[in-house]
Amino acid sequence: MTLWGQRDDLGEKPLERVGLVLAGGGARGAYEAGVLSTLLPALEARGQRPTVILGTSVGALNAAFAAANAHLPADEALRAGLERWESLEMDRVVRPILLQQAPKTALLYAGEVLGVPGARLRGLLDPSPLRETLAEWIDWKALHRNVRDGTVEAVGVVATAITTERSVVFVEGRGAKNLPRSFSVDYVPTRLEIDHARASAAIPALFPGVRIEKPARFRGWYYDGGTRLNTPIKPVLDFGVDRVIVVAATSIAQAKGAAEGPEPDFADGALELIQATLVDPLIADVRMLGKINLLVEDGAGKRAAAWRRSRGKAPYRRVPYIFVGPRERDALGRLADRVYEESFSGLRQLRSPDVSLLSRLVGGEGRPHGELLSYLFFEGEFAREAIALGQADAQAWLDGHGDDPWQVGPLE
Description:
Elements: E1 18-22, H1 29-44, E2 52-56, H2 58-68, H3 74-86, H4 97-114, H5 129-137, H6 140-148, E3 154-161, E4 167-172, E5 185-189, H7 194-200, E6 210-212, E7 220-224, H8 233-238, E8 243-247, H9 266-297, H10 299-310, E9 321-324, H11 331-343, H12 353-362, H13 367-374, H14 380-400
Helix pairs in contact: 1-3, 1-14, 2-6, 9-10, 9-13, 11-13, 11-14
């Protein structure tokens, strides 16, 4: 049996604990699958596979799939993941929009505006097909078994509690006494099920909130974890891993060009909110990780560690990392625009009227249109292109780091 961690001679525990962080990004989860299909087999050859796996939103779905297949060789497990993404269709994620949801949504919205008793619009889209899709995609019994036998040390998904507005990491594989403590994050031991994953991916306004019943102490309604913690780097570090892999579906490349441009519209504003929520915290976290690594290696790091220990705080640690995200800004947006024009525009829109409708609803032209569409483009044509881009970006990271794929200092 091939295990996710390198083991000692007695086979009792991993010699080196590797963490995997999978960010949110809607349909861009196909990009993450492409990254993993190239990156993890290469790391497996080095005896380095993740044993702590955390994800947010679509990253939570990919994390659960990875944990459920952790007993398989990396290339075999990830090949199955790619097949699922490549066969994806919109109606496997949301109910038909044009024929079913649009009239119902319009009536509920009108009823709520007019004060009709019982009229409540819980979300613009109905993601009920996602439950069946996740039941088919993820072998939950295998996930529990892999955690139970130690193939996976811990797997967790991040959701946002609606009442407290706090990030909650639902974790299988550790009891309450062995979970970290945090001022800003609640770590909750539980047996992961479909509803935990659905809650992590419940995009506010688009999808209705998801109710979690277990554990009882955290019973309540939850939204997408990406609203507060889209890339859970800090939580995976809290688990004490020695190395960390971060896979993001958004680019941290800086924008280029002059500040002057056309007057912004709704799509520009929506994209700005996405950038502020998903990208800016990611840039700060990745830069901080590299800076702390340099600090620990420097003499000042020893003084900082002594200062933290004197105050009962855990000292900073050196944690080599791998970060893979789109190398070019707007790469996935441009890809979404191209796939739409080639496969869904003109008369071809009849094959999937919902994709055409979403394309119109996101609005905008050029960059804003493609970027927004790429988060909702749950179709195999887009998934295949996103997978290929993820594979190319992962290979570029490996090629750019020679014999050692792990980085210590800040990204350029």
